[in-house]
Amino acid sequence: MPAILDTLLLLALPASGKSEVRKYLAGLSPAACRDEFGIGPTVQLDDYPYVHLMRRIDDELAAHGGERGYFLAPDKGFRDGRDWRTLIELVNEDYADLVCQRRPAPTAAAEWLFDRIDLARSRVGALPHLGALPARLRGQVAAAVERDARALYDDKVAAYPDTLAGKTVVIEFARGGAAGSTLPLPEHYGYRGSVSCLSPAILDRASILYIWVTPEESRRKNEARADPNDPGSILHHGVPIDVMLGEYGCDDMAHLLETSGRPDHLRLPAWGRDYELPVARFDNRVDKTSFVRGARETWASADVAALHGGLKDAFTRLRRG
Fold this sequence. Notes:
It contains 12 helices and 6 strands. By secondary structure, it is α/β, with parallel strands linked by helices. It has 2 domains: 195 residues, no CATH class; 111 residues, no CATH class. The chain has a 6-stranded mixed sheet with strand order 2-3-1-4-6-5, with helices on both faces. A hairpin with a 2-residue loop joins β5 and β6.
């Protein structure tokens, strides 16, 4: 068998089961991960915490008389489609920091976050909104989101292992396009728009586990998991219905696979070359993952067996490349 998978892109529509798969894999023994799945102990990266913080920043801007910078409204999508790539720039930076064990230790976590978001936006050609704010308004918003920004920083550096040797880095995100879209999706949308912007350091090592559900099932599961008392949670956040229809009403994974020219691979031009990333689809159209959101002692053995078996089959296909 090939060596342990180095970097795994965990991709799917919202609420498809990505975070539940992460939780399940993180609870397995090192021997089971290695022997049955071909992965080491997992190190997790995710762009959702940045989405949550960008919404928090927008809410505080509006509360203090400013204009929302990122989203059209609290329950709407991005103003600028380039912000899908802003999120990827932040993931690239998190990956580089993880590899280098970089711990900047900011005195003010909100200001650290604001500078990171502005720099990421400038890299994708969008305006660095926070840097243009009046000093008083910026200070008010920074004070309001400082606790959340500090938690994001603390979680980021707490995840650093002593070494990445023998580990598998799992990078999770969801992408899509408006319901009824014609494929290929517009430039900044879908997996074509985001995977191609991952850094060469990631793409050179990456395989893709795609969790397959229909957009209708994604919306059903999104509604079922949403906990309004825990909007920042990876497992329990809910995506507004307008966003589900406008930005996750379809996705382009099937299209990309069908047009790649190589079975079970995603072919994308990036950084002056063509990348071919191996892809395995885990079929979750009949739900195999929602039980993982409950306490482990409530998990039924039949549910565990179905999830474990389906994942083992998908990882076996990935390891064969």
